[in-house]
């Protein structure tokens, strides 16, 4: 029986990491829905990537809240603060 090449091993590792990533992503989305954050899957993905890149969690949450408040003000026809 032939030995698997290093490329096959690399591809299987990549596949396993992708599966794990999708599972983690689905769990994060479930938690977000349970907590009623109102974040879309795309927004959640962006937040996770920012956190992985080293953005401080409190700063990120404050930015999300500020953006939401400004969007609400725009939608209500009020100037943002």
From TrEMBL:
One of its GO terms (biological process) is gamma-tubulin complex localization. Pfam families: MOZART1 (PF12554). InterPro entries: MZT1. GO terms for cellular component: centrosome; gamma-tubulin ring complex; interphase microtubule organizing center; spindle. Its main location: cytoplasm. Keywords: Cytoplasm, Cytoskeleton. The keyword Cytoplasm applies. It is found in: Cytoplasm, Cytoskeleton, Microtubule organizing center. It comes from the Eukaryota. Belongs to the MOZART1 family. This is Mitotic-spindle organizing protein 1.
């Amino acid at each position: 029986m032939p030995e698997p090449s290093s490329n096959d091993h690399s591809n299987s590792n990549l596949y396993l990491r992708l599966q794990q990533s999708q599972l983690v992503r689905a769990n994060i989305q479930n938690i977000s829905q349970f907590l009623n954050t109102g974040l879309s899957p795309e927004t959640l993905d962006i937040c996770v990537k920012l956190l992985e890149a080293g953005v401080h969690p409190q700063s990120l949450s404050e930015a999300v809240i500020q953006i939401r408040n400004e969007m609400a003000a725009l939608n209500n026809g009020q100037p943002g603060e």
